[in-house]
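thought: fold this chain, then report.
action: predict
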Amino acid sequence: MISKSDDLILVSQVVLLNSHRAFEKLVGKYQSSVRRFFLNLTFGNEALSDDLAQETFIKVYLHLQSFKGTAGFSTWLFRVAYNVYYDYLRNSKPHLEADFSEIDPYTESDRPQTDCEMDVYESLKILKPDERTAILLFYMEDHPVEKISKIMNCPTGTVKSHLARGREKLANYFKGTGYEFNFG
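observation:
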């Protein structure tokens, strides 16, 4: 397992020595969490998640010299991932105005989804993009509010508001579907 200080060493090796092996180690450490982040943001669309994750790591590689080390590498990486996702949303805006309730979740992947996965993805659709991002980073990626604030480039109070609104919407959604759900 690579520690946070090892991240800085690996970044230095990539930037100064153009070490592909060092970059492979960084990708190996973070690719699962970045892909999971996108998988949840895209409601289980594996192909899109893979494409967005690949684009993220390409951008990271091309712009790694701009990493200043003032925040942790994972914070910077998720900031890049967040920007890749929002670039995707902006560029595909006409397509996103479709009614998500009409999308058949089984067509998104060859792997059948469980009822629980479908319910979670359906619940995420009711959230605004910033609420969804904050909820996923906090609950799925286990990032603290301060780190989410840096990733989303907004004040911690705004992140807390996104989390509170998102939790309230999700709790109401799950109550309406018969689940007993508590964020406590």
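thought: worth noting. The chain has a mean pLDDT of 85.
final: tokens above.
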